[in-house]
Amino acid sequence: MRPTSSAETFPANTPAASQVFTAVLSHGPLARLEVSRRVGLSPAAVTKAVRPLIEAGYLVEGADEEARPALGRPANLVRVDGGRALFIGVKVTGDEIIGVLTDLCCRVRVARHLPLPDRDPRTVLSGIAELVEQLLAETDGPAAPVLGLGIAVSGDVDRGEGTVRYSPFLEWRDVPLAELAAMTTGLPVTVDNDVRALTVAEQWFGAGAGLTDFAVVTVGAGIGCGLVVHGRVVAGAHGVAGEIGHVTVDPAGPLCHCGNRGCVEAIAGEAAIVRQVHEATGVRLTHPGEALALAREGVAGAREVYARAGEAIGRGIATVANLLGPERVIISGEGLAAYDLFAEQIRDAFVTAAFGSAAQCDVRTRPLPFEEWARGAAATAIQSFITPDTSR
Amino acid sequence: MRPTSSAETFPANTPAASQVFTAVLSHGPLARLEVSRRVGLSPAAVTKAVRPLIEAGYLVEGADEEARPALGRPANLVRVDGGRALFIGVKVTGDEIIGVLTDLCCRVRVARHLPLPDRDPRTVLSGIAELVEQLLAETDGPAAPVLGLGIAVSGDVDRGEGTVRYSPFLEWRDVPLAELAAMTTGLPVTVDNDVRALTVAEQWFGAGAGLTDFAVVTVGAGIGCGLVVHGRVVAGAHGVAGEIGHVTVDPAGPLCHCGNRGCVEAIAGEAAIVRQVHEATGVRLTHPGEALALAREGVAGAREVYARAGEAIGRGIATVANLLGPERVIISGEGLAAYDLFAEQIRDAFVTAAFGSAAQCDVRTRPLPFEEWARGAAATAIQSFITPDTSR
DNA sequence: GGGATTCTTTTCCGACGTCAATAAAAGAAG
DNA sequence: CTTCTTTTATTGACGTCGGAAAAGAATCCC
């Protein structure tokens, strides 16, 4: 399967180079002096760090439009040449694999689906290989090589080892996915938890850029949460972290599949909403979209279900804010399709349950295209390429 | 007030020196090679970092008892000379100031109380000055100078600035406490939130030594929580963090002073327990200890109050574990006096509400002598002395 | 064409940490 | 008793990285 030869690596593996590059990556075209201010290096150090990056083609000088300052020598802006390198991100779900081809700036170029007949690791692996093959065919040529493959899987994933320790959804245990995928594709592979991958994408390329403490809350089939504290994504000592979906918001609430009562997910998860709408309206629902349709039509029982879901999510976010005091919480996920139905309740519940100035936390939403999860996987690959270690 | 002259500083302000010293401080006598393994430096670097520290007297060679390995050259253990320097820690509560004199290893030598007639910053400041004066009098002489003063205050404290931004308990706003105390005492002053200070003490000298991710939960008048993530104490973007006391565990629960319902603190805080025991038994209680006494006597209503309190605390801890996945949770605080009355409930509620392997988190208790809060303050002073910046 | 101002680069230098070699301190083996 | 093995500690050469200061560059304003 395609020799893929070289294994091109990032020049200058010094922390300073990574910092400088990351700053330029996250904050668009920047003057060297501005970079120096941001990362706390001397201007001279920035000049020296930038040079090899320009020589290698990762950075280029000159921006499209330079907003001239009134005084002094105009800045010589530096930006990342997105087209210099490509990455592939893959998200494995229960019934399909989604893959994207992105550039170095994590902009999606091509997105592809592949249905998944079963969840056997071999099946998934060959599916990934096929998807990667398809995406590689979309490449421009050797000028923009594909430098990494990121794979996002739900569950307990050890990114350092590149193994899936336990994924209830896929029914996997201790699958050395990175190693296997590297063998079949010949690419450097990064494997991470799906929510953390999405969080990395937000941290580097999204609404978390420049923040050291924020949270990403995903609303969909499950309710997940990625946390960035002290500038680093929280992984958890035992493979569990960010389980906002299983924060209890009502000990008398509905039973959750985790065995507990009144988890956020048992109230606001997709399955829970469908079940509750059915109970409230008596309508038989065969598809999640139908619950949403009922609420949109104004059926009171359905609307109330969404309202309660919003309240649960708002409380969950308040819990995160009370414990960690993030600067921002970014709500995302497929569930945002129903955002208008519970936006108010999320906000109200958050403000009520947030303690003191935790309520100042900036809670915002971010629409999530279907390929966003795969893009998160690509972001982890880009991160691995630039900074070999997991740390900042 | 006592010139205090010199302002002795830590030699070698390089990160490596701090890391080496901290490792020796937290993990008793260590061989240089062992230090090198722990902090990831080369043996040569450790040798070079240790030398100036020995010359300055902070480290000494040779331990009391060296467990000889069977083979090879025996290690030349290095440990901190606790007596080389002293620190003062002060905790300001509503009605008194507690001060301790500790050595460099944060071992308490002397502890003193001082009643506080009112909460005016001037009164508190002169109280601190008096307490510091008393503790300075216990000093051995110039061989063991007092090198720092740590002050712990509840509320929103900016450690970097050394200001109390807002303390509801003291009714303070924007008091530049570090600056003021430095002027009156002539010592380098560190000001921090009380729970965070306690957490620093655990991180460096207690059950959190060597861990990068853990939590300290304090049970007492309030329910607080200090979090260490990625090896650093979480401060929160808006001055709020670790507010486990205001995590909602029962939306139908009793009203909390924060305006919300069913907070952990509204169920398990001291005032809440007293109120609930009164409601359950009808006995008029004039002192918190009486509630405990009733429960100890086996009065069913009182016991149930404690049981519910334990359940609330256990749920709160589970929430922390679900979100952050700490390696360990350390329960401490005056409320532990009643630990036998709710230990089981804490454990049960934790195990039930913890999601998946989050239940593997090591939850343990740690008795907390009354001067422990002040010791935490001293720990922050020691930390500031060794590492000028707040980071690791 | 001078300042004035701001951004960038150059040059020098010191600090720090690794590498590789060496020394040191034991017990084990013969 | 000598030599080998094993482990720990130290030394000094070397390279790298980042900072300080000064010079250079590019623009606007006067």
How would you describe this protein?
- With 392 residues, chain A is α/β, with parallel strands linked by helices.
- Chain A has three domains: 15-80, Winged helix-like DNA-binding domain superfamily/Winged helix DNA-binding domain (Arc Repressor Mutant, subunit A, Orthogonal Bundle), CATH 1.10.10; 84-201 and 372-386, ATPase, nucleotide binding domain (Nucleotidyltransferase, domain 5, 2-Layer Sandwich), CATH 3.30.420.40; 209-365, Nucleotidyltransferase, domain 5.
- Chain A has helices at residues 15-26, 32-39, 43-55, 121-136, 177-185, 194-205, 264-268, 270-281, 288-296, 300-324, 339-353, 372-386, and strands spanning 59-61, 78-80, 86-92, 96-103, 108-115, 146-153, 156-158, 163-167, 172-175, 189-193, 214-219, 223-229, 232-233, 328-332, 362-365.
- In chain A, the strands form four sheets. The first copy, chain A, has a five-stranded mixed β-sheet with strand order 5-4-3-6-10. A five-stranded mixed β-sheet of chain A has the order 13-12-11-14-15, with helices on both faces. The first copy, chain A, has a three-stranded antiparallel β-sheet with strand order 7-8-9.
- In chain A, a hairpin with a 4-residue loop joins strand 8 (163-167) and strand 9 (172-175).
- In chain A, helix 2 crosses helix 3, helix 4 packs across helix 5 (177-185) and helix 6 packs across helix 12 (372-386).
- The longest helix of chain A has 25 residues, at 300-324.
- The model of chain A is unreliable at 1-5 (pLDDT under 50).
- Chains A and B meet through strand 12 and helix 10 of A and strand 12 and helix 10 of B.
- Chain A binds a DNA duplex (30 and 30 nucleotides) through residues 14, 16, 31-33, 41-48, 68-76.
- Chains A, B: This is ROK family transcriptional regulator.
- Chains A, B: It holds the Pfam family ROK.
- Chains A, B: InterPro entries: ATPase_NBD, ROK, ROK_cs, WH-like_DNA-bd_sf, WH_DNA-bd_sf.
- Chains A, B: Belongs to the ROK (NagC/XylR) family.
